[in-house]
Structure formats: C-alpha cells, structure tokens
Amino acid sequence: MFYAIPMLSPIGKLNKTTSNNEKGHLLSNVSDSDSINPDVESDDLLTVGKLFFTSSGRDRSCSASVIDTSDGNTGITAAHCLYKGGVYSEKVIFCPGYDNGNPSALGKIPVIGLSVPKSYIESKDDDYAAIKFDYPSKLQLQTGSFGWGLTPPSPVSIAIFGYPYKGSITNCTNDAKHFCTWRGYATLESPFRNKPAWKVPLHIGSGASGGPWVMKNNLPNYLGYLIGVTDYHLGKTGQANEYAHALNFTLLRELINWP
Asked: What pLDDT was estimated at residue 190?
C-alpha cells in the first residue's frame, strides 16, 4: 500500500479538489525513437521554475516544475526540499521561468499545499513530492506542463532542467541563478537500497534538486513526459553519478489527491 501525507501550509487554504478520474495519462511504454534529441539546443521553459522556501529557519532553494493534472495547479519537486528532520518547509514560493536571478512575468506563485510520501518520511525512499499552487486559474495553461505515466525502456534519451550550484553541467553558469539544461541518456539501475532509479553520468549540483528529468513523446499538448526528478548523487564531486528515483505512478496519483 502507498501512503502520502498532503499538508496545507499556513499560507492559505485549498479550495479545489482534484478528480480521481483524471490523475495522469497512463501508457505502458514509449519508443526511444520518440525521445528528446540530445543534440537539440536548450529550451526556454516556463514549465520549470525555482522553488524558494524556509527550512529549519534557513532560506533555501530547489528546482520544480508544473505537471499535467485536472486541477491545473500542481507541480513536482524533490521530497527532501519539502521535508527535513521531521519538519515541513515553510514560506514556499514557485517562480516559473526564473532565470538570471529574476522571475518571469508570471512572478512569484505561492505554494499552499505540500504532499510528501510516507515512504520518504520513514525511510528516505521515493524522493519526490507534489506541490499545490495558489493561482487564480490553471497555471499549467500559462506555463505548459509535463505529462507523466509513461515507462520507457532503458536507456532513454532525456533532458534534465534546473538551477544547479557548483555542478558539472557544461555551458551552464552553475550559480543557482540561471536556468540550465543537460541532454543525454539515462539508464535504470538500483544503486541504493534496491530502489529503482534513473542514472546519468554527471554531478548536477545542489539547487537542481527537484528539477525534472523529461523524455519527449509525440502525443500532442505536452512538452515531454516526466520520468523522475533530481534526487541524489553517489561518488566524489566531479566524478559522481546523479540519480532520480523511478516514479511510481500509483503513488504519484496518491500524492496529488488534494483534500
């Protein structure tokens, strides 16, 4: 059985409920021929943004993105950005399209709901979590969204987006202020506690945690399909491999079942 712990932050109250009948687009597999071409130049995306929050009294930041849901106001990030040491993060703000130290025209979007897996809280498994945006309409209509629910073969061609700090992505300032993209191939492994995770051969860097790992698909209306978010690295800095826990879509539907 899967567990999630949706939580309302003190910023406000939720006033919408997501339909259980529209929790994603579940397909069994996708051909790698439809994947993102690793030679394509980086995109400018409003779908990805910088996540600001306070954790244990300190101001911090991660990366996050908007995912396709029926309510149109749901995103995803790393669980460790929202929950640490038994305490939820506070004053969470999402800035879609943030770049060069500045938010986009969409500004700063308050986050009024956090949903962290119980499996992460108890054992640090499933390091991804859902966030609920306080936006007057559907934010995903303004930003676009990443689809989810596809299980690709391994290896798969992907793009990784985020705001890394002191990482090893080339053609990236790695200063946590600029939007950066890495393109290449991810392989599915089980390097830690036998938990399936996607691996890429680089150290992305702090600040990129929660950034989406996306494969392309030719179905309409999506910018790509999410397979995970930046979670953890193993190895020495500069020689590390980066991992994203493989998404469990049953658990993800549970996470976005907002009260």
From this structure: 85
Domain limits at 226? 147-245
DSSP-derived 3-state class of residue 123: helix
Kindly report the pTM of this predicted structure: 0.83
Q: What are the structure tokens assigned to 142, written together?
A: 């303004």
Contact 30, 152 (CB under 8 A): yes
171-193 pLDDT tens trace: 899 899 999 999 999 999 987 77
In this structure, the answer to whether residues 124 and 160 fall within a common structural domain is: no
Same domain, 122 and 185: no
Residues 6+ apart with CB under 8 A from 120: 79, 80, 83, 126, 127, 128, 129
Locus of tokens 């300032």: 173
Classify residue 131: in a domain, yes or no: yes
What gap in Å lies between CA 52 and CA 131, rounded to an integer?
Answer: 12
How many whole angstroms separate alpha carbon 83 and alpha carbon 120?
9
